[in-house]
Design goal:
The chain is mostly helical. It has 2 domains: about 1-35; about 35-250, MetI-like fold, CATH 1.10.3720. The chain has 10 helices and no strands. The chain has helices spanning about 5-25, 40-50, 55-85, 85-100, 110-115, 120-145, 150-155, 160-200, 205-215, 215-250. The protein is globular, with a radius of gyration of 22 Å.
């Protein structure tokens, strides 16, 4: 199936899903307190954006997401490279990395509050902790997947260590690295939204929680729709960047 057919099938599937929700909400099959029509979600979202009612909360959430994701990238990629370079370090850290996934990082929030106070920093650290491991693991896996033959050829033609990294290892590992970036962003966003939902007094996660408890279903779904739209847009941007880098690598 070519790309055009795939996109057409995806569009039809999405349209069918949205139409089904619209019908269920408007027919009364599902109560309004549970679901509002998607068209009303969109209208409500536009009104919220135009009125500026949620502008401050958008900034609060995505500034923390950006900070957590940036830290995850700045720490995760060098850490993944270090694991690839040192088999001993990887052997030492592997059990801790595997165990890390079983630890709910939110349990550390009270400790973070004691250390850093009631502000946005504990939320940023939780989101960073959720995102960085995905970047580390995928980066390390990417470098480990590099064919040793290419690295040996680089040594044979007397490429420096940096040149082997720049021209051989990094381009070969890019698909894995970008998978880590996409997962790191998603986990950072989840960490911020979930933290705001239960721990904060502002932000999009807080708005969802507040609108839910006050039975303002239309605004709740509107905020959720905004988060989905932004998440998809950023993910697609990363995919496009990845595609261009891959094409550049092929043409080089």
């Amino acid at each position: 199936m070519n790309t055009r057919h795939v996109h057409a099938a995806q569009g039809l599937g999405l349209a069918a899903f949205v139409s089904s929700l619209e019908y269920l909400a408007r027919s009364g099959a599902v109560g309004r307190i549970t679901l509002v029509p998607p068209s009303e979600m969109g209208t409500t979202l536009v009104n919220l954006l135009v009125s500026g009612e949620i502008t401050g909360d958008i900034w609060q959430t995505f500034s923390v997401v950006l900070g957590a994701f940036s830290l995850a990238v700045l720490v995760g990629i060098p850490a993944g490279w270090a694991l690839w370079q040192s088999a001993e370090l990887k052997e030492i850290l592997d059990p801790f990395i595997i165990t890390y996934y079983a630890i709910p990082v939110f349990v550390f929030y009270p400790l973070l509050l004691v250390v850093f106070g009631f502000n946005r920093l504990p939320i940023l650290l939780i989101a960073f902790a959720m995102g960085v491991v995905a970047v580390v693991i995928n980066t390390a896996n990417g470098f480990e997947a590099v064919d040793q033959v290419y690295l040996d050829v680089g040594r044979a033609v007397r490429l420096s260590r940096y040149q082997r990294f720049r021209h051989i290892a990094l381009p070969a590992a890019l698909p894995y690295v970008f998978t880590g970036l996409k997962l790191g962003f998603i986990y950072s966003l989840i960490g911020v939204i979930a933290s705001e939902f239960i721990l904060a007094g502002s932000g999009l996660g807080y708005l969802v929680s507040n609108y839910y408890t006050t039975f303002n279903t239309a605004k709740m779904y509107a905020v959720m729709l905004f988060v989905v739209i932004v998440s998809v847009a950023i993910n697609q941007t990363l995919l496009r960047i990845e595609g261009r880098l891959y094409q550049h690598r092929v043409n080089a």
